[in-house]
Amino acid sequence: MLEKMSPWDYQQVRRALGHGSGFDSPGFNELRRLVPKLGEEFERLLNRSKIDLLTLFLNDRVYEDLFQIAEGLLDIDEQISLWRSRHFKVVERSIGMKVQGTQGTPVEVLGRLNSFRFFPKLWDIRTEITNYSLDQER
Q: Residues 6-35: pLDDT tens digits?
């Protein structure tokens, strides 16, 4: 809906948002609180199974359940990243770049948050798998 508003009309809505918009919304705050706990539980499961991520991903059929959990966590991380990116673009379109958002955060800072990942190891393992594959070809 915000994308369809003129920047001036958004200024009227912005006053009513207070501190409950975007990155500071109750829903997003709850995600930021809960998602890391999912990662901790996944790490616990990996440790209990006595395998590392490379072993898991090279043997995804053997460790199907853990593999599906890992991919589900990556799905969550990707969707949050896509939301952050979309939110940033809506903010930029609505209020511009060199101003502060509703929480007082400069819009440029919101843009830099787009690179944050909840599960960097699950992203990094893709590079490790690619390098492993290239080493196997040699």
A: 877 877 777 776 655 666 777 888 999 999
Place of tokens 């991919």: 71
Give the predicted TM-score (pTM) of the model. 0.82
- Torsion angle, CA of 9/12/14/18, rounded to 10 degrees? -170
**pLDDT tens for residues 51-91?**
999 999 999 999 999 999 999 999 999 999 998 898 888 88
Tokens 């990662």 found at = 39
Place of tokens 């053997």: 62
All domains in the chain, ordered by first residue: 23-137 (1.20.58.480)
Q: What are the phi and psi torsion angles at 100 (to 5°)? A: -100, 145
CB atoms within 10 A of CB 121: 16
